Task: structure prediction
Amino acid sequence: MLPDPLVLPDVRYLRYSWDEHREQVEDDPELAEGGFGIDFAPDELHKANVSGATHDILLLRAVADPVIHGVGGRPGITLVDYLRLSISWGGMPGWSFKADQAPAVLSGPRAHPDF
Result:
């Protein structure tokens, strides 16, 4: 079991990824049909310094709350739900799988967001 600390990319990385995607689409317009994908964050294994993969978001259309792919044990979780879960576990959503084993220090910062 891994704590899976919350990691979010900064806006420069998102901009860089979008610009790269646009350049590729200019060279091959058919790539636009697949949407815009971004490796949004390292997965729980990478965050634990173990070879792993990434949490990915694929934007096929304009949606405010896209699905994050590759989040262990959470198929179909959306960005907002992952953020809510992360906040409610003090930034460590992986502990929700083994709440009884979570460090006591996390009981203080835990909150249940109302957004």
Remarks:
- The chain has a mean pLDDT of 89.
